[in-house]
Amino acid sequence: TNSTILIVIKGSKYMWYELLSICM
Predict the structure, then answer these.
(1) What does pTM read for this prediction?
(2) What CA–CA distance (Å, rounded) separates 3 from 1?
(3) What is the C-alpha separation between 22 and 2, in angstroms, rounded?
(4) For 1-24, what is each residue's pLDDT tens digit?
(5) CA distances from 14 to 1, 4, 5, 7 (A)
(6) What is the distance between the alpha carbons of residues 4 and 24, in angstroms, rounded to a whole number?
(7) Cα(1)–Cα(8) distance, integer angstroms
(8) What is the DSSP code (8-state) at residue 1?
(9) What is the pLDDT at residue 1?
(10) What pLDDT score was predicted for residue 9?
(11) How many other C-beta atoms are found inside a 10 Å radius of the C-beta of residue 17?
(12) Long-range CB contact pairs, 4-7, < 8 A, 24+
């Protein structure tokens, strides 16, 4: 279960990076 949460956090981090790159 912990590994799944870590994967979700990593995925959200990647999404934030994409959103930031689009804004900039």
Answers:
(1) 0.38
(2) 5
(3) 31
(4) 788 888 888 888 888 888 888 887
(5) 20, 15, 14, 11
(6) 30
(7) 11
(8) -
(9) 72
(10) 86
(11) 10
(12) none
